Amino acid sequence: MSLHGTGIKMSEAVEKSREIIAKALNAESEEIVFTGSATESNNLVLKGLAEANPEKKKIIISSIEHDCIRNSALWLRKQGFKVVMLPVDKKGIVEIEKLENEIDKDTLVVSIIHASNEVGTIQDVEKIGNICRKMGVYFHTDASQSFGKVEIDVLAMKIDLLTASSHKIYGPKGAAILYVREGIKINPILHGGGHEGGLRSSTVNVAAVVGMGKAVGICVREREKETIRLKRLRDKLIKGVLKSIDACWLNGAEKKRLVNNVNISFEKVEGESVLLELSNRGIMCSTGSACSSNSLEPSHVLLAMGLNAPEAHGSLRFSLGRWTKEADINYVLEILPIVIKKIRRISPFK
After folding, report:
1. Are strands 138-142 and 176-180 parallel, antiparallel or unpaired?
2. Comparing C-alpha atoms, which of 100, 115, 178, 110 is closest to residue 151?
3. H runs (alpha helix) in the chain
4. Which residue among 111, 253, 334, 338 is the one 20 to 30 A from 194 at the CA level?
């Protein structure tokens, strides 16, 4: 940034945000790289590692990764890399034994999502991190959904690289980070003026970066209280839906899941029809992954967990947040059974 008075103030504001975010992860400020989105961070980590370490040609990801990791890995496969997608169990948990069996001397990086954006299942990243560190491979986790909601210590968890996003924690869109442990070889995918330690050339989005720092500070301060509140509301919604509607089930882990995520499949309905009916009644939810809701394909996450296509199409994801009140949960529990009954009555699946 420019060396005049205003430029110096802006630079100081950016560095303050970097310090706040680093402290939240138990990292060093110099290890935090600001990017424009989690998608950019995830592309940077896989493609940047691959280019900087061409001697290793194997990349391991899970079968439930976000599309930006999944598609980056598939692009690298076209460049000659071997890509292994680890299976998960019916709760969406990565099978650790299969991970250990897949890591070999040609493995460059293991990238496992910390918490699923679709079903909320939280992986044991500390166990995965210890395995990767012991076996000499890099470990990256996409923590876009978990950062700010659960405690993350990159040192204790042996995390080498980590992605986090601003707007997932009520910060502005247009800012995200990639934590890169000191000493890791990674090349930029954007070339220009050499911003962010040479890893991300582009004019820094000061407003978004400062907003992200403020959002992180609020999340850290309020996390314990907010976790208790949201967990109670989440569990009330899950129990209420499963009790009042037959032929439905919770997707993902019952306990080791994000406090703001409820993903439920309903038999003999088409999820988009239910979504539209709920939307008309003021209830906003999503089918599959909200990031790719324009796609008519069933969720690859739910398919990887063992659901068939009709079951995956019949799933709804409810996301709770800072402004969700108990009255909102009560309203959903009142309206949802009525809507499911209506859709089932006219459904071609019955």
Report:
1. unpaired
2. 115
3. 5-25, 38-52, 67-78, 96-102, 125-135, 206-244, 271-280, 300-304, 309-313, 326-346
4. 111
Give the span between the Cα atoms of 255 and 331, in whole angstroms.
24
Report, as residue numbers or ranges, the catalytic residues: 291
pLDDT for 169-227, tens place per residue? 999 999 999 999 999 999 999 999 888 988 999 999 999 999 999 999 999 999 999 99
Q: What is the DSSP letter of 91?
A: T
Burial class (CB within 10 angstroms; exposed 0-12, middle 13-18, buried 19+) of 116: buried
Residues 29, 18 contacting (CB under 8 angstroms): yes
CA 208 to chain centre: 19
> Is 262 in contact with 320 (CB distance < 8 Å)?
yes
- Residue 295 is classified by DSSP as -
The whole model's pTM is what? 0.94
Give the tokens for residue 10: 């802006």
